[in-house]
């Protein structure tokens, strides 16, 4: 294999993505250490703490059960800001359109973006549009960037997990990836699987009163829960132990994954977060999540069991323990 070529796997959010970042992109542009590689950058501007994030969306197909590329782009950047404990304020939007793309479909996407921004309480304040010749793009790509206000003194990031922390997820995992896959491949799925795409800033606002007990927030998008937990374990230098029987998985998602040989732990989510909470406040955090519409199926799925160089393992249904690593290659391309 020619190691000089970019592969689809470099966009998976997994091992190849991290290699591309660590070996080429970050050394050339910013030299941010592993511990500082979070969902958004924290900035201090004139004594005001701000979070800043950017993301690009290339999902295929652009319309899928439960959403489309437009609301996905808004929710994705809102959530990246929220994972730093920030209150999202405003977004920019950039479009790359392929010649021949339907104006009616663009209007539908724009309407969903407006609705998503209103639901999240953010303003779209600036943007850009470019058009490339037919055959030189794939219908529509969207970039969104966002700024949020950090209105507290808490230190919430991927390097703050501590031994004893409980790991909580706010609902079923893998819904988004399987919804997009079903639309792409024309799978006849009768279980009503839909993307979980949603703005999580309201749920995060309900968790912030936990104060210093709230250590880490992260949304497990590309690469799924497994890859995200591995990132946090590496950033914090800890061992995370999952309990397989506690993982909430939609039966339809579980069935499709079983048929196709996929692991829900590695399937993308767009409306889920992982929270690392001090053990004495874990039940309180769980109760807060379950009172919110986006957290009714929240569950404690594991804990930080020790210090290490960054290890994730899972206690299996049959009583064994297996290692959990980052996604290798590209399981489901063009998922977000």
UniProtKB/TrEMBL annotation:
<dbReference type="InterPro" id="IPR011854">
    <property type="entry name" value="HypE"/>
</dbReference>
<dbReference type="Pfam" id="PF02769">
    <property type="entry name" value="AIRS_C"/>
</dbReference>
<dbReference type="InterPro" id="IPR016188">
    <property type="entry name" value="PurM-like_N"/>
</dbReference>
<feature type="domain" description="PurM-like N-terminal">
    <location>
        <begin position="38"/>
        <end position="150"/>
    </location>
</feature>
<dbReference type="InterPro" id="IPR036676">
    <property type="entry name" value="PurM-like_C_sf"/>
</dbReference>
<dbReference type="InterPro" id="IPR010918">
    <property type="entry name" value="PurM-like_C_dom"/>
</dbReference>
<feature type="domain" description="PurM-like C-terminal">
    <location>
        <begin position="162"/>
        <end position="313"/>
    </location>
</feature>
<comment type="similarity">
    <text>Belongs to the HypE family.</text>
</comment>
<dbReference type="InterPro" id="IPR036921">
    <property type="entry name" value="PurM-like_N_sf"/>
</dbReference>
<protein>
    <submittedName>
        <fullName>Hydrogenase expression/formation protein HypE</fullName>
    </submittedName>
</protein>
<dbReference type="Pfam" id="PF00586">
    <property type="entry name" value="AIRS"/>
</dbReference>
